[in-house]
SIR2 family protein (Larsenimonas suaedae), 394 residues
Amino acid sequence: MAFYLKQGKRNLLEDIKGDETELNKLQDFLSNLCNTKHINFLLGSGASSTSIPTMLKMAEKVEDILDEAESKVEGVKPLYESLKYKYNGNLEEILGILYSKQIYDNGVGSNDPKVSTLASEIEEVIYREINVDIYSEDHSLTVDLYKLLYDKMSKRSRDLPRLNVFTTNNDLFNEAALDLLGIDYNNGFGGGLKKLFNPSRFNYSYSKASETLPDRYEAINNMVYLYKLHGSINWREFDSGSYFLNIEEFEVEPGTSNNEVALIYPTPLKQNKSLGTPYADIMREFKAKISIPNSVLFVIGYSFSDEHVNNFIYYALSSNSSLSVVLFGDFEDKPIYEVGDNRVFSIYGKHEDGEKVHYFKSVVERLLPDLDADKKKDFLKEFSEKLNDLVRQQ
């Protein structure tokens, strides 16, 4: 079994022998990075893979509905088969081509029904696979992993900035975990009967009155800022009568069909669908947060298949000399690795039981520190040092 901790292209574990020693080194490395002033996470589809199928599995489900789609519009099945052959069944590439054709058709005033039908059928499959009953026993493992992530990482000292979590996922596992833990989170939505998206809310900080000092306020413990880069299955547009407050949260019923939700589908051409509110606002927040000095970005379950997300990471690396990026996975074929930047770290390999060290389950269960436990250790250490100083003074 072998673990890899690469800084740029150099393996920092190459001279260390023994799985336990390597594991301890990884844990110490991450524990030290978690003391960085600004902590950010980028979670991709791998974080929910114990419940949500991969794009490859979803492609198989698309094939199951092709005969029915062909009965609606002739030519849908041959079109999919040709795209599948050319792009190796990659739904991201296929949707990208279909979206491009739709944009072209709209531009020249024409319409190809088999293109729009196939795109809609693929979107429906993806939505149906994402819209699961997150509280059922089938998905308890996924919810527990998210809970463990937030239980460990949200308990930072109130003197430090709150945790930022960015995700390309459209599912509701983040929200479910935070609710079950009783952790407050800010996702840009607020209001009364209707929860409306307002990007200015990301600039709000939440505090409470100090119990010991009058007219003083202290930050709320366990606060999290949650940014859903590609929207969510419980977002939809509606006519609010306001120019910009036109995205609302609503209660979505598991297993239902797509009902005009503001969901961004996985394709390299997502930019064509994500230039307005709320996506542009949230992407700006992503760019701004990882551009702050003394920041770290932990990247888990993300495949670097989304160019506009990638570009913001590259921009931050070019402009923020104190940014550290920790990639959980082997990305030797990606530009972010090929550059060999010493601020970019890669962690991957296998435990002795065969579990991959960079998978979400392993990261949250075996690698990430418990910041609350670390905080208690720091308190005890400080108390011990002060006690020793008093003893020496006597």
Q: What stands out?
A: The chain has two domains: 3-51+137-379, 55-130. The first helix runs from residue 19 to 33.
